[in-house]
Amino acid sequence: MRTQAALLLVLVAVASACGGAHGAASDPNQPPPPKTTVAVESRKLVDVNLYALTGTRRMRLGTVPGMSTRNFVLPPDMVGNTDRIRFGIEIIGTLGHKSLGSERGFESEQEMSVRPGDELSLTIY
């Protein structure tokens, strides 16, 4: 029993050491990665949620109210791993019209070329 407890303690210590190195701050001599942004202009009357899509990953960036423009910063790990990114649009408002219903619906996707530091622009119609 004492051997198993010691082995468990060693495994916990090794896991903690590995986890700490992964989450450590980056090299202070290295410049931070450039921010990649997307300006989203919505010409819809209803609000939409904006998602960044890469491979099987879907990350919600935020809400764009109807007839407005919002700016979002893309997560560096989503930009650095690929040269293309897709944006998904989810309608979240219906203006109370009975024929439109009230459930959210994933409406469309838009794919764009992207590199770290780019300033993208997306218009929703």
From TrEMBL:
<protein>
    <recommendedName>
        <fullName>Lipoprotein</fullName>
    </recommendedName>
</protein>
<feature type="signal peptide">
    <location>
        <begin position="1"/>
        <end position="23"/>
    </location>
</feature>
<keyword id="KW-0732">Signal</keyword>
